[in-house]
Amino acid sequence: MIFFTIPLVILGFIAPAIAELKSNASRFMGVTILLAYLSSVGAAAFAMIAGYAIIPHLSIASNIGDLREIPQPIIELNVPQLFSVMSALVLALMLGLATANTKAETMKKLLNEFQKIVLYIVQSIIIPILPVFIATTFAGLAYEGSITKQLPVFIQIILMVILGHFIWLAVLYALGGAISGKNPINVIKHYGPAYMTAVGTMSSAATLPVALRCIHKNQDIPRYIQDFVIPLCNTAHLCGSVLTETFFVMAVSQILYGTLPPLTQMITFILLLGLFGVAAPGVPGGTVMASLGIITGVLGFDQAGVAM
To answer: Long-range contacts: 264-267, Cβ < 8 Å, 24+?
Structure first.
């Protein structure tokens, strides 16, 4: 069921985002979206470099010969996808660009309605069954014995990712302060509640009210910029999710498959992941849900890899 919806999620979120961006974007909005994309790609590149430098030196057991074999399922129902992941991505790009350039208002409304339908499916069906899918997958890995061997590594990875968040935030705030000539501490000191909400809920949508309340305490940034950029980047600038996912997929690849993904695959992955980070829904795990296609299509992860 989860893998069946991946092409639908890609089509449902990417195509309307492109169509709306072209028709509604002023120069200000276009620059904001471009900066959000570059920041997401930069965060992913930072995580990729760190992954290649750090993950091979972690104590990851690569010997899988002594793992127990999981019994075959009694009932197995395979639901094939309507079309491939790459077909969905290309179709979404073509539909979005064509709709925007031809000013096809009816098609734009249709894409927006389809996005609402897909979002409902994600929120009402996929998100609720994800814990079961993840739990059963981890139960299978625990039965094999791989989880118990790798638990300390998972803890290390989580701590390194959190550290990576702070490093990338420091880079962004330093750049912003250098360009604007303002002290970034005046913004950072108010943003603790927003960061904790984002980490705790894993949802940019849930974090938006807290983020607005935090940024409104700052006097250096004009209010009209605050009220425009924060809601826009609430779903368009998910560099934390992108950074986390990039490092995690590399770690999972090393844990499950005994090797890191090739550099060419990772470059393709982060360029596409930045695009998905701009168009991902603001629901818990939205970036992961939207990018499952490139995790499976570009990196070749199986069900165990996706669940982890």
So the answer is: 265/298, 265/299, 266/48, 267/48
